[in-house]
Amino acid sequence: MLSTTLVISVAFSYLLLLFAIAYSADRAASKGRSWINNPWVYALSMAVYCTAWTYFGSVGRAANSGVWFLPIYLGPTLAMILGWLVIRKIIRIAKTYHITSIADFIASRYGKSQRLAQLVTIITLIGIIPYVALQLKAIANGYQLLTTSLNSSPLRSAHWWQDSTFYLALLLAGFTIIFGARHLDSNERHEGMVAAIAFESIIKIIAFIVVGIFVTYYLFNGFGDIFKKAQALNILQGLFNFNTATNPLAHIQWFSLVFLSMLSVILLPRQFQVMVVESTDEHHLKRAVWVFPLYLLIINIFVLPIALAGLLTFGLGQGNPDQFVLSLPLHSGHEWIALIVFIGGFSAATGMVIVEATAVSTMVCNDLIMPWLLKSSTFGLHKRNNLTRLLLWIRRVAILVLLLLGYSYFKLAGDAYALVSIGLISFAAVAQFAPAFFGGMYWKGGTERGAWGGLLIGFAMWVYTLMLPSLAKSGWVSTSFITSGPLGIEWLKPEQFLGLTGLDNLTHALFWSLWLNTAVYVGLSLWQRPSAREASQALLFVDVFKRKPHAAPVFWQGQANAQDLINLLERFLGVARSRSSLKAYAARYHLTLDSLTADAQLVHFVETQLAGAIGSASARTMIASVVQEEPLELEDVMRILEEASQLRAYSKALEEKSLSLEKATAELRTANEQLKSLDRLKDDFMSSVTHELRTPLTSIRALTELMLDDPQMEWEQREQFMGIILSEAERLGRLVNQVLDMAKIEGGHAEWHTTDVDMKAIINQAATSMSASFKEKGVLLQLAMPDTVMILKADADRLLQVMLNLLSNALKFVPAQTGLVTVTLSDDPTGITVAVQDNGMGIAPEQQALVFEKFRQVNVGTQQGTGLGLPISRQIIEHFGGRMGLRSELGQGACFSFFLPRI
Amino acid sequence: MLKKGLLAQRLVGWFLLAVSLLNFPLLLLWDHNVTLWGIPIFPLGLFIVWTLLILGLVWIIERTPDEE
Fold it and tell me: What does the pLDDT read at residue A185?
């Protein structure tokens, strides 16, 4: 038993921490650094799906019926598999048309129908209030269990003002008001709230894992141990199979639970709020669709062990299974663990209440109260200039009232049946939205009449077959109408409607309500053609991916005054906010605020902005009150659509044309660049050639002049000079030949005499002709060749030229007397490889790429070459489809090699 | 259908597989009073299928290039 002060102060500190997180997130967002703009936070915020009903109730469900707690989590996994397709479409529609609640979504789709929005809101309210009550009850029960000894009978406080749950409800209302309705946002986004919810999701999963590990591995010896003990006591009997003998329709029940939770994970107001309204970027969905199911999987791993451990510890039928997570650690005297568990459950409950209250308050304000206020003249709304404060106050009061209603329900229902089974009953209520919601997203034929009729009959059937019986079982209504039918009419029995027996209550109710709902929706939709407004909204919703947001056609015609529209916007959004959004609008069409024309586009823009603040149906009414509209006929819708698609085709053609122009320009530019660089290369080549020619010419001329000027010159001196002149003349000749050669090869005019070539013979021939030079410098030439090599098709003279060039190059760079040049010849089926390795100084890495360029001589001191040998050699090798390369390191010698393929 | 893109088709395919694996009659494959590693095979099988479905989804959504 823990002291009440301790539990209350821990819970209160937790709320303060939540407050601090939400506050900091809001601060960060106002500075432009969004905390929630990432897929992980988005996925965690989706986990608001796991409420106290999950946290405490899953174990209870597992203890009573084994695996039957699982369908509630398998359904969302299925929904998330299609999430990237379906939820993304919902997000896109909601963001494009500033839709901020599920009521608004359905109403907007069916021609912005006011009565549809009201009906959806009322269904939500009736379905959700007990669910909120359930959360308060979970906290209250947990608190009671922690602070009273296990065996004492629960005490109920006599008066509401002595009840801590009442103050908790007020506290939660305050928190929700601060973060859910502090300021008006035209997109209804709440950074702080989402950050707090994501944090709560982390807390509740950690707390649940802590108690799971504690029970499974501390109180027991792991999964196997618990299951073995349970088996020994025969507890497992009937928990882990479907018992189709006793319940022949178990598989239908299983399917309906999976199906129901699959719909609920999208249609519950809090899920719609966090997944759609609070979405910052639809791409976050890509990560969230698998993180969220993973979260559900992890939080469920320990459910069965805890349930069985509870049954083993307290005995079958003893103790409240819904409280096992708390009573197990308490029973073994680990009160701190119990406190952690309580905080986890507290976070699950508060998270649900905060988001649900925010979402429902938006719906109540926009769809129930505003339309009524706008219609009635007693409040003089038409005279008020700024309505933003009024809007906020309506929402704040709605939040408070919702929490108080939840509290009252909790006080009235207490431990009654109505509260225990309420989770699934709430799911079944919001599932009634499914036909109108999904039908509206994918079927253009659905009409307002059909959606209205379907929702009404579905809701009525839900009340009759599920809600009323649950109230009767709580003792509020006489149960006689369940057992013998209303007024004794047997076939109207709510749990065996029209004599349908065999199904459990939930499946029975779900079948009748959804079947009639869908049938009426489709039937009435097909009864009459959709009106122009319905048809136009259907087009905008169903085809939302076909157009860019600002390219959608605008279905409106009439006369309007720009100033009237601006005034209207300022009344509901405030001057500053409407100014800035109008400025953004004007900028998009290259206009200024003063030059705005009141065309259909502007009317549509103002209406969309208003819809974000007061809902699309109210926005429609307000717009209609300040403009002169011409009624839209179905033909007008078709005409506007036609025009829009023509415009689209036209702009597409333009886009294509400009694209192809751009492409042509780019091609021309690269061609030009190529030409320029070729020109530069030619210039470089010319200047290099002249430079190379001038050096030998200068020395020939200087020596000749010397000899002419001095007739008395010694013969030996003269002979030496003439020797230099001869070698310089030879160099000149070689240079000219090589330049010509190069030009021929590059120009494609070279003559090639392709014959059968034996590479071995060529290497031998080159070695022989170079042997004198090698001997003279004292350099050793080694040949390493196999006995036979394949015969190639090539030009023998050219290859000899390449070999001579490589050998003389190597000779130039090796040291005299100690030099060593090795020629290696090898072949494989693809071709032959020749490598010439020297032991000279090597070539630095940065120069290696340069040696194959024309006139680039690697700096080797006195040694002179033409700088054309290697480029020519490479051209020759490449002509025969081979490649030439160099491998070298400074000080390690160089190895030139080439590969010639077999042709 | 070809225009719809590979990602959408893979997701729809995976969804149909998941629905069939988590419902009758394929669920009956696990519905036996047998234990594996000391754990009844029915909940164990459900958790294994569930894990595989999520892993497959991760692979599909993170690895398929989106044409949009």
Answer: 64
